[in-house]
TrEMBL record:
Keyword annotations: Kinase, Phosphoprotein, Transferase
Gene Ontology molecular function, alphabetical: phosphorelay sensor kinase activity
Record-given protein name: histidine kinase
Assigned EC number: 2.7.13.3
Domain annotation Histidine kinase: ranges: 26-135
CDD domains: HATPase
Chain intervals for the UniProt region annotation (Disordered): 119-144
Provenance organism: Archangium gephyra
Enzyme's top EC category: transferase
Length: 144
């Protein structure tokens, strides 16, 4: 969040954290994934609105939700938005290649987690990442 705040000092970023957030993860890759989600939330939402980051403890997983009040993502774009070189919505200020969400999904999947998106006019857009506290081995069982 510090990097996002430094790059967007005019924007309001809010963090809510509830629970214990310990696990076996690659912190550099997760920082990259969460940074991509935050950058997208800032880019696709009005400048006078906040971007919320909510960390939650959920049994054997930890979740991070990134929420913004931007316009909804079109329903027909939701199924392909994690594909490489795809953009759900064209944005004039965007200079990326359309790889940010693909990278997020790859990092989260490599950690044995999931990422999902919800988007509506009434509720805004939320990306939720769920990560198991322990990395998953090649046979699908928790690593020791």
């Amino acid at each position: 969040m510090e990097e996002l705040e430094a790059g967007h000092p005019e924007r309001k970023l809010r963090l809510t954290a509830q629970g214990r957030f310990q696990g076996e993860w690659d912190p550099d890759r997760l920082a990259q994934a969460f940074g991509n989600l935050g950058k997208n939330a800032l880019e696709y939402s009005p400048e006078d609105t906040a971007v919320d980051f909510v960390l939650r403890e959920e049994e054997d997983t930890v979740s991070l939700e990134v929420h913004n009040e931007g316009p909804p993502i079109p329903a027909e774009a939701l199924s392909s938005m994690f594909e490489p070189f795809q953009r759900a919505v064209e944005h004039p200020a965007s200079s990326g290649l359309g790889l940010g969400l693909f990278i997020v999904q790859q990092i989260v999947t490599a950690h044995g987690g999931t990422v999902e998106v919800r988007s509506s006019e009434a509720e805004g857009t939320s990306f939720t990442v769920r990560l198991p506290r322990r990395s998953v081995g090649s046979e699908g069982t928790p690593a020791k």
